[in-house]
Amino acid sequence: MGAWYQVQLDEFLEVSVDSIIGDLARMAGDRNLPTNRETLQSWRNTVEELRKSSKVWCDHVPKAFGWTMLLEYEVPRRSRRIDAVLIAHDLVILMEFKDGSARYDRDARWQAEQYALDIRDFHSASRDKRIAPFLVATASEISLPIPEYSERGLVLPLACVNFDGLTSGVLKAFSDLANLADPPIDSKEWDQSPYRPTPWIVEAAREIFNQNDIREIQLAGSQNLDRTVEAVLELANYCKENNRHGIAFITGAPGSGKTLAGLQVVHSAGLLNDNKEASGVFLSGNRPLVEVICGALALDAEARQSRGVTVPQMRRIAETFVQHAYKFRNFYTIGDGNIPQENVILFDEAQRAWDANQVRRKTKLDPARSEPELFLDIMGRAKGWSVIIAVVGSGQEINTGEAGLGEWGHAIANSDIDWMVRASPQVVSENVDIPGGPLLQTGETIDGLVEDPRLHLNMNLRSPRAEVLNQWVDAVIDLRLSDARKLFESIGDFPIILTRDLEAARKWLKDKTDEDHRCGLVANASARRLRAWGLDTKALQTDASWADWFLKPKGDIRSSYQLEVPATNFDCQGLELDWVGMCWGNDMTVNLEMDNWITKKLTGTTWRQAKGDNRKFMLNSYRVLLTRARKGMVIWVPSPDGSDHTMDPIGLDRTAALLADVGVPRLTD
Predict the structure, then answer these.
(1) Same CATH fold, 464-661 and 223-286+324-457?
(2) What end-to-end distance do the CA atoms of the chain give, in Å?
């Protein structure tokens, strides 16, 4: 990977243009990429103009002869190329050319800005370096004013220029920002530097299934993901060596990497069984999540096998990696299973495990026991040793029958087995803000419980651009409007836009999405009257088509790219998209004073107030929907005309006004 052509400016000024074009054409041929006359002429125009600019740079800055020009920089693990990169001492200058264009189009600006942000966030050698992006419209008669570079932020404002403006703009950026006391960037190291975009859960599962270490592909600034993995591995290895049974409780905000850490442990090379296979399995009660991961693994496995291997066969292989929690539970509780083959299980969203009443309703077990009791019993039977990794989320409870963490504590305290318990400090009873309630109720104790701060993940791994997003969403849902306004100012490079026009929202998403990024619509399951705009909130559940929606490519009518079928809170929990169109329903609108949410459920043709747990689940559902995006989000609030009594234009108007009041800008062309 890396650049197709790399050269220092002193050599760049001497080598022939034909030689450079020939090298670029050969690189394209090696990748089976076509090169037509237009492409070759565009390269020629660009190289000739860059040589003119380079001579000016070298005339004004003697050390510029040692700067490095990289052409057609191929972004690793992405199907994209940056037209040119100039390494100017300690500056990274990115150049995107629009050959023959006289305009600085919005889409072109967006593309250039995204390149700069992605290089900042994911390119290891660019971390802490200043990055100056330039959009060059080669046929433009004028350049827009060069931004003032007084702020020493890592990504500078985009400069929109013609070639003359590029020449002067680079000199200005270097004069204003270069620190000659700092060592120069090694251009060869920069070119080959790892590019590590944070994987979404399906990408991470693919990597681990293929026996790659997730810690090598995740964002290097993830703070303590590696320490969390090490903490759980310590427990697992101790249990393995000493024939003990253990349980670890991992906590963190949505997107912090809890599940990634657990997946890495479950499939760690140090815990392979005698057949060199993983000793553990990922368990989730979230059927869409399991279906999407299994579908992705099956397709990957099929692609690596010889002809004649079917997707169902590969799916069975994938299901040794990830399973529905209820299938595992039933097999070892009411099925033929006795001694589990797995020594390690990851129980995702452990606070959502079923209580005894829900188990009775769903399984007819008598006497019924809660899921925590059943899983402790099952893994207590494992041969020699076992470890349960209990991943604990926050604000994600969206359904009935969820037991909370207290049931795990009660089950451990009353178990016949001496469990080694390692817990994030976030779950102990002294904590006033515990996801899923405290692990221990008043008067309960667990012998040998050890708090381990490494088991709490404290950074948003889902999107480094959205560090403050979860806090902002919490403030909006809690109607702490002053806090929400202040937090929105800190969201920074994570765009959130408001519109009342569904087609405008779709266009915004399409403009932002390329072949490397996924977009889709999301909506609350109880927002039933979105059907008036053609959005069926039951479609994915009815068809069980989650894998198609999340995995099929652009152009496939079943995929999320079509922006026709929304994923609901039940469809997308635990999953994510790069760009999200969040469709607000009139099942939850704000009151006149903007100090209370009006929550409703549709029965027949009548909306009835949602109270108690139903209200809590609805608030949490909107919390989930507003945190599904990795790169940005458009919020569409419908604007009904009032002719349909099942739609509330006044409530939706107030909700749109609230979002605008807390900082969300209106979408404009």
Answers:
(1) yes
(2) 37
Q: What are phi and psi of 227, to 5 degrees?
A: -70, -35
Q: pLDDT category, 218, cuts 50, 70, 90?
A: very low
Per DSSP, helices labelled H in 513-611 are 539-543, 546-551, 569-572
Q: For 426, how many CA atoms within 13 A lie in the half-sphere containing its CB?
A: 22
The DSSP element (H or E) to which 497 belongs, if any, is strand 496-499
Instruction: Answer whether the bond into residue 147 is a cis peptide, omega within 30°.
Output: no
Q: 307: pLDDT confidence band, cut at 50, 70 and 90?
A: very low
User: Max CA-CA distance within the chain?
Assistant: 87
What are 583-619's pLDDT values in tens digits?
Answer: 999 999 999 999 999 999 999 999 999 998 889 889 9
Question: Strands across the sheet with 588-590, in order?
Answer: 588-590, 597-603, 606-609
pLDDT (tens digit per residue) in 7-53? 999 999 999 999 999 999 999 998 888 888 999 999 999 999 999 99
Give Cβ neighbours of residue 265 (< 8 Å, ≥ 6 apart): 229, 232, 233, 236, 271, 280, 344, 346, 389
- Distance in angstroms (rounded) separating the CA atoms of residues 554 and 613: 39
Report if pTM > 0.85: no
Strands (DSSP E) along 328-458, which ranges?
Answer: 344-347, 386-392, 419-423, 450-451, 456-457
Instruction: Please name the residue that has the structure tokens 């033929």.
Output: 336
| Residue 19, number of CB atoms within 10 A of its CB | 10
Which residue has tokens 């919490």? Answer: 474
**What Cα–Cα distance (Å) separates residue 582 from each residue in 456, 499, 524, 549?**
29, 10, 9, 16
Rounded CA-CA distance 7/86 in Å is 10
Q: Which residues pair with 346 in a beta bridge?
A: 282, 389
- Distance between CA atoms of residues 658 and 216, nearest Å: 42
Q: Residue 166 — φ and ψ, nearest 5°?
A: -65, -45
Over the stretch 486-526, which tens digit does the pLDDT of each residue have?
999 888 778 999 999 999 999 999 988 877 789 999 999 99
The CATH number for 223-286+324-457, chosen from 2.60.120, 1.20.1260, 3.40.50, 3.30.1150, is 3.40.50
**Nearest CA to 399 among 249, 177, 571, 281?**
571
Question: What whole-number distance in Å separates Cα of residue 576 and Cα of residue 630?
Answer: 7
Main-chain phi, psi angles of 95, to 5 degrees? -130, 125
- Sequence-distant (6+) residues with CB within 8 A of 242 are 385
Report whether 421 contacts 216 (CB < 8 A).
no
d(CA 406, CA 372): 10
Query: Based on the number of CB atoms within 10 Å of its own CB, is 415 exposed (0-12), middle (13-18) or buried (19 or more)?
Result: middle
* Nearest CA among 534, 533, 537, 566 for reference residue 550: 566
Whether residue 288 contacts residue 551, with contact meaning beta carbons closer than 8 Å, is answered with no
Q: Which CATH code is given to the segment(s) 464-661?
A: 3.40.50
Domain ranges of the chain: 2-192, 223-286+324-457, 464-661
The single residue listed with the structure tokens 């020629």 is 44
CA distance 477 to 498: 16
